[in-house]
C-alpha cells in the first residue's frame, strides 16, 4: 500500500518527481491535530525538500536514486521491502561497517535502519522515505540546531521510530526502548536500569510523552545522545558516487548559523557529457562539529575538572545516565553561550561538600564584571516576552524568600533536586521562585546570577517572580547595593543599576495549572481577579505614592502584589492597616476565600513573611505562605521550606509535598550579613505547628511532609 506518513496533501513530492499518496496516520486524523501535543511537527515532504535545498543535496539525491533504481529496476511510486533494502545496503558495506552509532553498524543494523525509515511501519518504503533516510542517517547531517529542517527531519523520524504502536505518544515501554538505545550509545547494555529509568521518567512526567514533550526535552538537551542514533558510518551518496566512478569533493564547513554556500566540484574528464547514471557527487555541506562526523558523533570533547577522585565520579556519572553528560561545555568555558552553565556548575561544585563553608568575605571569582553584564543581557530577552502573569503547569517546585542566603539555596538543591538536566528533575518539573532574592543575606549577587543562569538555560521551566526587594530604592539600603560595590569594585554601582533594570521585567504573579495563584505578597484590597495582574506594561517601576500623588488602581495592585500580607488571625476579616506602611494593607481569610471562589482557584501561595516552620497555612488551607531561608538574619530560629505541587495520579487531586531545612540543625549563619540596615520584620506570630501531625517532623536535619488539597 502506497502511503505518506505525515499530514501533508495529495500530490507530487517535488523530490525527484515521485508521486505521493496521502493516507493519514491514526494519530493524525483530519481535525484531530492538537497544537499542544504536536507543536513544531511539520510535513515530512516539506522538511525533505527544505533539507535538500539547505544542504545543497541535489547531486547527492541523484546518486541515491541511481542506487535505488539500479537495485529495484523501478522508479516513481515503487515500494521497497526490508529484504530488498538489506540487499541494497549490502552493496555498500562501507556505510555499515565500523559505525559507532546505534544501530546501522550492528548485526541486523540494516533491518533497524529500514524500520527507522519506514514511518508507518507497513513493511515498505518509497523513494521519498529512502531519500529522507539517506539524509537523516548521513554522518554529515547535524542535529544541533532544531530550527534547521534536516534536524527536524531526524527528530520526527526518531519519534516515529520509537512510537511502536503509532498512537502519537511514547509510552513507558517505548521510552524504555529509547533509553536502552541511549544507554547503548554510551557503552552500557543494562536493560533493567534503562527500564527503571523509563518508568521514573514516565511517572515524573505524569504519563506518555507527546511529540511536543519529546521535542522540548531534546531541544533543552534533557534527553541527550539522540544525534548518535541511526547513523551510517559513511555517507550513502558518497559511497554510491565512489563505487560508480565519481569523485567527491570534501564538504566545506560553514558556521552553523550561516547559510551553507554551494559546494565546489572538481571537473571530471567526462564533465561535458553528463551521463544520467553518473551525476556529480557533492558530499553533505554541514560542519563536522555540528553533525555526527569528524569522529565526535556530535559530542563535544570532554575536559574534567577537580581532583582525580572527582574526575572519576564525573566519568561514572556521564557513562551511566542517558540524560546526563560529562559536560563538554567546559572546553569553551569562557564562551558566552556557556557562561550560564559555568555559573551553575561552579556553584554546584563549590557546594558538593556542603554549602556551610562558603565565605562571603573571600574575593568574588564567580564572574567578571563583563560576564555579569553578559548574563543580564542574556536573561532579559526571556523576561521581556513573559506576561506579568505567567502560566505554567504541574508539577512545580516553589521557593519563597531567599534573601541572599546562598548556603540555604544550595543546601536545598543538593538535598532535594537541582534544576539541572544532569543532577536534577528539570526534565519533568517546573521551578517557581516567588521573589526577594536579594538583601540581608551575604550572597545576594551570587543568588541573582545563579537564578539568571538557570532562567537562561531553562526559560520554559524556570520562572522568577518579582518581590518587594527587587526594587532599587529598597535594595540600595538593605545590603545588595553595597555588596555589588564590595564584590565588583569600580563597576559595582553600574552593574547594580543594570541588575535592577532586569528586575523591572520580572513577572508579578503566576497561575499554576489554572488553579493555583502564586504571588510574592498577596491580594491586598485591590486585586479581585487573577487578570488584574495580566498584560501590565513592562518595565514596571514600583510606585511611591504620596498625598500629592496618590496611587492609581494599577499602581495599588502592584503594591499589594509585592507588599500585602494576610492578617495574623483567622478572626480578622476584611482588610486592616499594615505595619509596613500606608501603601498596602493586611487581608483577612474572607478575602482569600472570596478571591479563590471568584477565580475558581484551589489556593493562593505566597512568600514575603518569615514563618516558624518554613510554611504556614491560612484561610482554611486556601492560602499558603512559604519562606525558604532558615534562621532569618540570625535573629529567628525558623525553618526554611520549599513546596512541590503535583497531581496525584490515582485521585486526580493536587498534593503539596513540603521539603524542609530545619533551622539550627545545620549552621548556615554564614549566609547572613553581620550588620543589618534595620532589624528584620518580625516572624508571623501565629502559634502552633502546621495544621497536621504528618506535615512536619523534627527527627532529622532535612525532612518532607505531604498533604492533599481538597
Automatic annotation (TrEMBL):
Q: Where is the composition biased (Pro residues)?
A: 679-690
Q: Which residues are in the EF-hand domain?
A: 105-140, 150-185
EC number(s) reported in the record: 3.1.3.16
Known catalysed reaction(s)?
Answer: O-phospho-L-threonyl-[protein] + H2O = L-threonyl-[protein] + phosphate
Tagged with keyword Calcium: yes
| Tree of life domain | Eukaryota
What are the start and end residues of every segment in region (Disordered)? 247-326, 671-710
SMART domains with a match to the protein in the record: EFh, PP2Ac
Task: Name any one Pfam family assigned in the record.
Answer: Metallophos
The record's InterPro entries line, in alphabetical order, gives:
Calcineurin-like_PHP, EF-hand-dom_pair, EF_Hand_1_Ca_BS, EF_hand_dom, Metallo-depent_PP-like, Ser/Thr-sp_prot-phosphatase
Cite the entry's keywords alphabetically. Calcium, Hydrolase
The kind of enzyme this is, by top-level EC class, is hydrolase
Coiled-coil spans in chain: none
A GO molecular function for this record?
calcium ion binding
Keyword set includes Ribonucleoprotein: no
Q: Record's family?
A: Belongs to the PPP phosphatase family.
PANTHER family, sorted = SERINE/THREONINE-PROTEIN PHOSPHATASE BSL3, SERINE_THREONINE-PROTEIN PHOSPHATASE BSL2-RELATED
> What name has this protein been given in UniProt?
Serine/threonine-protein phosphatase
Source species: Vitrella brassicaformis
Amino acid at each position: 500500500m502506497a502511503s505518506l506518513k505525515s499530514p501533508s496533501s495529495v500530490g507530487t513530492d517535488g523530490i525527484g518527481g515521485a508521486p505521493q499518496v496521502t493516507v493519514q496516520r491514526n494519530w493524525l486524523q483530519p481535525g484531530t491535530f492538537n497544537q499542544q501535543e504536536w507543536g513544531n511537527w511539520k510535513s515530512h515532504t516539506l522538511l525533505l525538500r527544505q533539507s535538500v535545498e539547505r544542504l545543497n543535496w541535489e547531486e547527492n539525491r541523484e546518486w541515491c536514486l541511481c542506487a535505488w533504481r539500479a537495485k529495484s529496476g523501478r522508479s516513481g511510486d515503487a515500494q521497497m521491502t526490508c529484504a530488498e533494502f538489506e540487499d541494497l545496503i549490502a552493496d555498500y558495506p562501507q556505510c555499515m561497517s565500523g559505525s559507532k552509532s546505534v544501530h546501522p553498524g550492528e548485526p541486523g543494523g540494516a533491518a533497524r535502519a529500514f524500520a527507522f525509515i519506514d514511518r508507518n511501519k507497513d513493511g515498505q518504503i518509497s523513494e521519498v522515505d529512502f531519500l529522507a533516510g539517506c539524509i537523516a542517517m548521513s554522518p554529515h547531517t547535524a542535529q544541533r540546531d532544531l530550527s534547521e529542517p534536516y534536524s527536524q527531519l531526524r527528530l520526527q523520524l526518531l519519534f516515529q521510530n520509537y512510537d511502536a504502536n503509532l498512537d502519537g505518544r511514547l509510552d513507558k515501554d517505548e521510552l524504555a526502548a529509547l533509553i536502552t538505545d541511549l544507554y547503548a550509545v554510551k557503552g552500557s547494555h543494562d536493560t533493567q536500569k534503562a527500564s527503571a529509568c523509563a518508568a521514573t521518567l514516565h511517572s515524573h512526567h505524569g504519563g506518555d510523552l507527546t511529540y511536543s514533550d519529546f521535542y522540548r526535552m531534546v531541544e533543552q538537551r534533557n534527553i541527550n545522545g539522540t544525534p548518535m542514533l541511526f547513523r551510517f558510518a559513511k555517507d550513502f551518496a558518497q559511497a554510491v558516487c565512489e563505487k560508480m566512478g565519481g569523485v567527491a569533493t570534501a564538504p566545506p564547513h560553514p558556521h552553523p548559523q550561516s547559510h551553507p554556500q554551494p559546494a565546489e566540484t572538481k571537473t571530471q574528464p567526462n564533465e561535458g557529457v553528463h551521463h544520467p547514471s553518473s551525476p556529480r557527487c557533492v558530499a553533505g555541506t554541514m560542519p563536522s562539529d555540528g553533525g555526527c562526523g569528524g569522529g565526535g558523533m556530535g559530542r563535544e570533547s570532554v575536559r574534567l575538572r577537580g581532583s582525580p577522585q572527582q574526575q572519576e565520579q564525573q566519568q561514572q556519572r556521564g557513562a551511566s545516565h542517558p540524560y546526563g553528560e560529562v559536560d563538554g561545555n567546559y572546553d569553551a568555558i569562557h564562551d558566552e553561550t556557556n557562561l550560564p552553565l559555568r555559573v551553575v556548575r561552579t556553584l554546584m561544585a563549590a557546594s558538593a561538600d556542603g554549602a556551610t563553608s562558603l565565605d562571603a568575605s573571600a574575593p568574588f571569582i564567580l564572574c567578571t564584571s563583563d560576564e555579569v553584564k553578559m548574563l543580564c543581557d542574556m536573561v532579559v530577552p526571556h523576561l521581556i516576552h513573559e506576561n506579568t502573569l505567567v502560566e505554567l503547569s504541574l508539577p512545580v517546585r516553589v521557593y519563597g524568600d531567599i534573601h541572599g542566603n546562598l548556603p540555604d539555596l544550595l543546601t536545598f538543591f543538593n538535598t532535594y533536586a537541582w534544576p539541572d538536566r544532569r543532577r536534577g528533575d528539570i526534565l519533568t518539573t517546573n521551578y517557581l521562585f516567588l521573589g526577594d532574592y536579594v538583601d540581608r543575606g551575604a550572597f545576594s549577587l551570587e543568588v541573582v546570577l545563579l537564578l539568571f543562569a538557570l532562567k537562561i538555560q531553562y526559560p520554559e521551566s524556570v520562572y522568577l517572580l518579582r518581590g518587594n526587594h527587587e526594587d532599587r530604592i529598597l535594595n540600595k539600603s538593605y545590603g545588595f547595593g553595597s555588596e555589588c560595590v564590595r564584590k565588583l569594585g569600580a563597576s559595582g554601582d553600574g552593574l547594580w543599576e543594570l541588575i535592577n533594570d532586569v528586575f523591572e521585567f520580572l513577572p508579578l504573579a503566576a497561575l499554576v495549572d489554572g488553579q493555583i495563584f502564586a504571588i510574592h505578597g498577596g491580594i491586598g484590597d485591590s486585586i479581585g481577579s487573577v487578570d488584574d495582574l495580566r498584560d501590565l506594561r513592562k518595565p514596571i517601576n514600583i510606585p511611591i505614592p504620596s498625598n500629592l500623588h496618590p496611587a492609581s488602581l494599577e499602581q495599588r495592585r502592584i503594591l499589594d502584589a509585592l507588599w500585602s500580607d494576610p492578617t495574623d488571625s483567622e478572626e480578622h476579616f476584611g482588610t486592616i492597616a499594615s505595619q509596613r506602611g500606608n501603601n498596602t494593607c493586611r487581608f483577612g481569610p474572607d478575602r482569600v476565600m472570596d478571591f479563590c471562589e471568584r477565580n475558581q482557584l484551589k489556593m493562593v501561595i505566597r512568600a514575603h513573611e518569615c514563618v516558624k516552620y518554613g510554611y504556614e497555612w491560612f484561610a482554611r488551607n486556601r492560602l499558603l505562605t512559604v519562606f525558604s531561608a532558615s534562621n532569618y538574619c540570625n535573629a529567628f530560629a525558623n525553618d526554611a521550606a520549599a513546596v512541590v505541587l503535583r497531581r496525584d495520579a490515582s485521585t486526580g487531586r493536587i498534593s503539596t509535598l513540603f521539603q524542609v531545612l530545619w533551622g539550627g540543625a545545620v549552621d548556615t549563619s554564614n549566609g547572613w550579613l553581620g550588620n543589618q540596615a534595620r532589624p528584620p520584620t518580625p516572624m508571623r506570630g501565629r502559634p502552633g505547628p502546621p495544621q497536621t501531625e504528618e506535615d512536619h517532623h523534627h527527627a532529622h536535619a532535612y525532612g518532607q511532609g505531604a498533604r492533599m488539597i481538597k
